[in-house]
């Protein structure tokens, strides 16, 4: 074997080892990033919790504010926005959270090396824990709204026994499916604020 051939083979071996080392380091960094997903994406929780209010505020600005409407029109035509509308960009956080697990599960199906499979499985678990946490926060927000709504008396019972029978029908469960609607239809909190009912002689705070 000539010296140039030996050097070439050695360089090839070193290059292969270097690429493998770089790939391993990248995999470790990727795993570390997904393990920190909960802290890195914590702002997403606030975004989802306040999303309806932000959307309503944006709609009102688009309707009433000429300067804001002109800015949004300009921004939507900008190259960095990739021709996306504002509404599409606001939906990106939802899409990102739902697409990451799907992408990782697709990678897992194509992965054979045991340590790599373990790493990808850990990434998927980290993502799913965060998604469950977001859903739990949203349920807590809904439960807090429901708890502030008192039971209402549609019919006044004539005695205690009638009151007892009517009691189960005087509570509106906002977490239950909407009667007569498809499962995809959900209740939305559009506006929350003080409510006063005007009676014959005075006004009464009811919420």
Automatic annotation (TrEMBL):
Gene3D superfamilies: Dbl homology (DH) domain
GO molecular function, one term: guanyl-nucleotide exchange factor activity
Region (Disordered): 1-20
Superkingdom of this protein's organism: Eukaryota
PROSITE patterns found in the cross-reference section: DH_2
Stretches that traverse the bilayer: none
SUPFAM superfamilies xref list: DBL homology domain (DH-domain) (SSF48065)
Annotated ranges, domain DH: 30-137
GO cellular component: axon; endocytic vesicle; plasma membrane
InterPro entries, per database record: DBL_dom_sf (IPR035899), DH_dom (IPR000219), PKHG5/7 (IPR040181)
Biological process (GO), any one: Rho protein signal transduction
Name by which UniProt lists this protein: DH domain-containing protein
